[in-house]
Write a structure and sequence with these properties.
The protein is mainly β. The chain is 6% helix and 54% strand.
Amino acid sequence: MNPNRLKQTARHALCAAACAGGMAGAYAQAGASTPDAVPNPRPAAPEPVGKAPEAKPLEVAPIFEGPGVLTPKGKFVFEPSFQYAYSTSNRVALIGYTIIPAIVIGVIDVREVKRTSLTTTLTGRFGLSNRAEIEFRLPYVLRKDDSVGRELQASSPEAVNFPAKGNDIGDIEAILRYQLNDGGLDKPFFVGSLRFKSRTGKDPFEVDTTTTTPGFRGGIQSELPTGSGFYGLQPALTVLFPSDPAVLFGTVSYLYSFERDDVVALTNGTPTPIGTVTPGGIYGLNFGMGMALNEKSSFSIGYEHSIVEVTKVNGVIPAGSVRLQLATLLLGYSYRMSDKQSLNLSVGAGLTADTPSVTLTLRIPFTL
């Protein structure tokens, strides 16, 4: 591969390495989906990027969220994106108590939940210098849950359907990125980023949770949140290494969510004081490889993993709260339609029960 082609490949590999936590990010904008009074915040993912060598490069298909290279000084990039996510889960809950093993006093709540979400995001990036850029994201989230529940110890254990919807603005984000070094052929690039996540979306404490619906006495949200409910700050580091004929990339990150005091949730229409809620941190990792197919097309493959620590309420871990493991295998394709416009499509397959089963993301960046 000649140096110019390698530079072109490097630029899109940076795009593929832009964010650790794309699947987790879908959950973050959607907010907690559990019916518990104190939901765990979903991970919102990091946005690392890097700056390729000084030639006009061909892009490698972006599979993680974020841009492919730092925006040149004074340039503005507008990027609309659309993300579809689908997941399904089964849940068994006991509402009652046990007097001796195998003898239960109460109700066993068994449910199946199918979750669908569509997130439309308007993104703007501006080059502050040849090494730094700033980005803002404005998401709008549409969610729908179709739940089927049964009470196995009720007089009539028939299935009960409970649909729930939610649509509103999501959590607005701002990201600052800086290229730390001058990479090159056979030399790695390092790019640091700092992401701030607001809580402008409707959070899980603002929506009503009902515990009186048959088949869902463990609690179910009558309206779905569109935000995580917590402010967050996420530092990240991306490494890009050109290795003819491919480009290798990886990202590490950590999301810190700020605790909230005097939290009040709605339960059966009644405000319920909860106290101080401290979300668990989220550790993120992704890595992969990008390769140019020709002068206009490119392909990427990658893996991302997020570890979501448990949330504490008034300094105590609630019963039933566990650490989450989110893992996704991603494939991406990119086509450069012109010097100022490209089309990026990626698909993600969830590898753990907590990860969305499938995600499809379409991005169409325009350079103005």
